[in-house]
Design brief:
By secondary structure, this protein is mainly α. It folds into two domains: 80 residues, no CATH class; 70 residues, Up-down Bundle (Methane Monooxygenase Hydroxylase, Chain G, domain 1), CATH 1.20.58. It contains six helices and three strands; from the N terminus they run ααααααβββ. α5 packs antiparallel against α6.
């Protein structure tokens, strides 16, 4: 390989900045939190409507079948909303779980010397996703950020 590793190390600050930006985007949960807050308000409304329907069923001589059907609709909607909450919370955990990858890369980049004089296994593990050998014996290094460097 030519000086590919050192040219990347020379851009260390820029790569660290890019990683921090990528981390912020990958781990951002603001939209999820906003939707969870909206859903929470919807759950409150549905729960109150269901309570009201149950109260009407218990205390009125009105058509019980219609009231039961209405309450069943509320409960069905509540189940759907709870499934959405579960999916959003799983997505939020997944996003927050991604934070360790860029953090490890940033720590390794910051701790590495600007010019590499020998193989650095920690930097390699943190930076390289895979290496491909082409049919014409060239090496293509795929970094975890998606960038390819031929060597």
């Amino acid at each position: 390989m030519t000086d590919g590793g050192n040219s990347i190390a020379g851009n260390c600050e820029e790569m660290i900045t890019d990683c921090k930006i990528a981390k912020a985007m990958l781990c951002d949960c603001k939209a999820i939190d906003k939707e969870l807050a909206e859903i929470s308000r919807e759950v409150d409304v549905i729960t109150n409507l269901s309570r009201k329907a149950i109260h009407e069923i218990a205390h009125s001589a009105a058509e019980e079948t219609k009231l039961n059907a209405r309450n069943d609709g509320y409960l069905k909607r509540l189940r759907a909303v709870n499934e959405r909450i579960t999916a959003l919370e799983a997505d939020k955990r997944k996003r927050k779980g991604r934070a360790h990858l860029p953090d490890a890369f940033i720590r390794n980049m910051a701790a590495s010397p600007l010019a590499l004089t020998e193989f650095n296994e920690k930097l390699w593990t943190a930076a390289i996703d895979r290496v491909t050998v082409t049919l014409d014996d060239r090496l293509v290094f795929r970094f975890k950020d998606g960038m390819d460097v031929e060597g």
